[in-house]
Write a structure and sequence with these properties.
The structure is a single chain. By secondary structure, the protein is of the alpha+beta class. It is 32% helix and 32% strand. The chain has five helices and twelve strands. An eight-stranded antiparallel sheet has the order 5-2-3-4-12-11-10-7. Strands 1-6 form a two-stranded antiparallel ribbon. Strands 8-9 form a two-stranded antiparallel ribbon. Helix 3 packs antiparallel against helix 4 and helix 3 (126-143) crosses helix 5 (173-181).
């Protein structure tokens, strides 16, 4: 595995720094890096189940940036470590970033979204997603009692974020929260795609990937 990789330019480095900073506010665990053909795909988990009884949906944020060189790798690394290396590169005015030590504890990283085969299924208003995300945040805050344990918090979050979005029943509220939290809602309409059990919400700023339950498939 490469000990470092180089971005195509400084804006690409800055773009990823913003994405990782936003993802870290939600989940500070790990990110998956897949490089090939001059492109780096960075997956960050926003929601994922922990244990058999956890009903949380699997929601991933995805941002792609250009690399300078033919590097090919597929690794999972600590988000915070990668962010620190990027910020160090920015301070040193270089576009080369050291590769953090790989980790093998991120269970969500074993669930791979499809690379192709996506079919367009329509659009949803960014305003609807924004409203759904903000309403969900308020609902979670109101439902979680002070001093609640992690199990209770996860149960409440699963109940709130598994609800369908009004007017877009095939999209769970968790996907709206991910798009909102990652700063992807900069356009009037968000494009929707599906591939098997996966759905994708896409804008020019990034993508939200949703692994849907069998009963929530569009077909």
């Amino acid at each position: 595995m490469s000990s470092s990789f180089t971005f195509a330019d400084a804006p690409s480095l800055d773009d990823l720094q913003v994405f990782l900073s936003r993802a870290a506010r939600v989940e500070e665990g790990s990110v998956r890096l897949i490089a090939g053909s001059g492109v780096l795909a960075v997956y960050a988990a926003i929601f994922y189940p922990v244990g058999l009884l956890d009903e949380s949906p699997t929601i991933l944020g995805l941002r792609t940036v250009a690399l300078n060189g033919p590097d090919t790798f597929d690794v999972v690394v600590p988000l915070r470590s990668l962010l620190q290396r990027i910020e160090r590169a920015q301070a040193e005015e270089t576009t080369t970033v050291g590769m953090p030590m790989e980790v093998n504890t991120a269970t969500w990283a074993a669930i791979s979204p499809p690379r192709g085969g996506w079919q367009a299924v329509g659009e949803v208003s960014a305003a609807v997603l924004d409203e759904s995300a903000r309403a969900g945040i308020q609902d979670v805050a109101a439902a979680v009692p002070d001093g609640a344990g992690e199990a209770i918090v996860r149960k409440v979050r699963a109940e709130v974020w598994n609800k369908p979005i009004p007017g877009a029943d095939h999209v769970v509220a968790a996907a709206a929260f991910a798009a909102f939290a990652l700063g992807f809602l900069g356009e009037d309409q968000v494009r929707l795609y599906e591939s098997g059990p996966w759905a994708r919400l896409s804008t020019s700023r990034g993508h939200v990937l949703v692994k849907r339950k069998a009963w929530n498939l569009l077909r």
